[in-house]
Write a structure and sequence with these properties.
With about 290 residues, the protein is mostly helical. About 75% of the residues lie in helices and about 5% in strands. It has one domain. It is found in: Cell membrane.
């Protein structure tokens, strides 16, 4: 039972990290029709910026804020100068965002060097505790809590605010939103910055989770995020959350019980959903 509970906690915490990357990517893809491969680079920059700030200042909160701010700043640069000129052209988007991903990774090597960097936790997040006879790691529970709070905040933003209404309307019908005289470019920019900030936050939270960070780390999680976006459904926060949990839990249990399938399980799930429900778990847009 202890093993099952810990596998469940590991899977959910990993799912929450993927959700932070995938939810923003899903909104960007659903609203802007932009296949943003550079999203993984923002994830990596969040990790490196946060770890550097924490090592310099010892303040976890400052490191978290700095990581998110860096992600949003780089997201602004990407959206304004690289992606905006190629709206509507998917081939150019693919080339530009892949190029952006490579540039972001190489810039990390310029600033922090090519070698992996160790990531530490603050004292208050270190260690574990026993609950009901089960040993639980504090940081994994913290990641789950942050993921839940971000999920709730996103739902409130999308369902209870005016800009959230415009975002949801834009995901369903961009032409209608434009016809109503709403500044779609401003909504695009807001969603892109929001997604960039969440990607950077995910990278920052992953850093001590994995123990080390490296320049190319974003690509691995970007692939997982794209799988989640497809499984969950374009533009759906609920779908991203559900799919992230499925991917995280499947990865945790498969790695323990059937390790030979641990690398293939995500692709098998993607293939299954493309055949059975190509529009995704939530929503009709696909």
């Amino acid at each position: 039972m202890d093993v099952l509970i810990n596998l469940f906690v590991n899977g959910v915490s990993t799912g929450m990290l993927i959700f932070l990357l995938a939810s923003g990517l899903s909104l960007i893809f659903g609203l802007m029709s932009v296949l943003n491969f550079a999203h993984g680079g923002l994830f990596a920059w969040g990790a490196f910026t946060g770890v550097w700030l924490f090592n310099m200042t010892g303040s976890y909160l400052l490191a978290l804020i700095g990581a998110v701010a860096m992600g949003m700043f780089l997201g602004f640069i990407l959206e304004r100068f690289l992606i905006r000129p190629v709206y509507g052209n998917h081939v150019r988007q693919l080339l530009v965002t892949l190029g952006g991903m490579l540039v972001l990774s190489e810039c990390i090597k310029i600033f922090w060097g090519p070698n992996p960097i160790a990531a530490k936790l603050p004292l208050w997040l270190q260690g574990s505790f026993t609950f009901g006879g089960v040993i639980l790691i504090k940081y994994r529970l913290f990641v789950i809590l942050v993921g839940i709070l971000i999920y709730i905040a996103l739902l409130l933003l999308l369902k209870k605010t005016k800009i959230g209404l415009m975002i949801r309307a834009g995901v369903m019908d961009k032409e209608m939103v434009q016809a109503l005289g709403i500044n779609v470019k401003a909504i695009f920019s807001f969603v892109f910055l929001l997604g960039a900030g969440m990607a950077a936050l995910g990278g920052f939270l992953l850093a001590p989770y994995s123990g080390v960070i490296f320049a190319e780390m974003g690509m691995q999680y970007a692939i997982l995020a794209f799988i989640v976006v497809i499984i969950g459904g374009l533009g759906s926060v609920q779908g991203s959350a559900l799919a992230s949990l499925i991917v995280g839990l499947a990865g945790a249990f498969t790695a323990y019980y059937v390790p030979d399938l641990s690398l293939a399980i995500n692709m098998l799930m993607l293939l299954f959903f493309l055949i059975v429900k190509p529009t995704g778990l939530v929503g009709e847009k696909g």
